[in-house]
Amino acid sequence: LRIGPHKYDPDPGFGRLNNIIFKNITVEGNVANNWLEGWNGNHRIEGVVFDNLQINGQHITSAEQMHLKINAHVGPVVFR
Predict the structure, then answer these.
(1) What is the pTM of this model?
(2) What is the reported pLDDT for 14?
(3) What's residue 12's pLDDT?
(4) Quick check: 37 and 45 in contact, CB under 8 A?
(5) Distance of alpha carbon 51 from alpha carbon 74, whole angstroms
(6) What is the pLDDT of residue 23?
(7) How much is the pLDDT for 8?
(8) What is the pLDDT of residue 10?
(9) Residue 62 burial (CB < 10 Å; 0-12/13-18/19+)?
(10) Cα–Cα distances in Å, from 32 out to 11, 14, 49, 63, 64?
(11) Cβ partners under 8 Å of residue 53, min gap 6
(12) Quick one: 32 exposed, middle or buried, by C-beta within 10 A (0-12, 13-18, 19+)?
């Protein structure tokens, strides 16, 4: 998930992403280069929960385990 400019969005504003739950997701295979990136203090990503995320049979409990890069305009991110 990223907030920022791109060529496909005609809207000049960026908005916010709040209270997102990824639940009961199972992934098999190579997982690399995942991002949570807000744009600035007014255009943040907040309240992300990964509930029962499994990658290659392993229960994921941290951003590091899923190669998730989180910038300063994101938080909190919870793994359970």
Answers:
(1) 0.89
(2) 86
(3) 73
(4) yes
(5) 18
(6) 98
(7) 80
(8) 73
(9) exposed
(10) 30, 26, 19, 11, 10
(11) 22, 25, 27, 59, 60, 66, 79
(12) exposed
In degrees and rounded to multiples of 5, residue 65 shows phi and psi of -65, -25
Cβ neighbors of 44 (< 8 A, separation 6 or more) are 3, 16, 17, 38, 73, 74, 75
Query: Which residue carries 């941290």 as its tokens?
Result: 62
Q: pLDDT averaged over consecutive 10-residue blocks of the chain (80 residues)?
A: 82 88 96 93 97 97 96 97
- SS3 per-residue string spanning 27-41: ECCCCCCEEEECCEC
Give the other-Cβ count within 10 Å of 67's Cβ.
13
φ, ψ at 66 (rounded to 5°): -110, 15
Pick the closest to residue 67 from 51, 57, 55, 49 (CA basis).
55
Question: Residue 46 corresponds to which tokens in the numbers above?
Answer: 């907040």
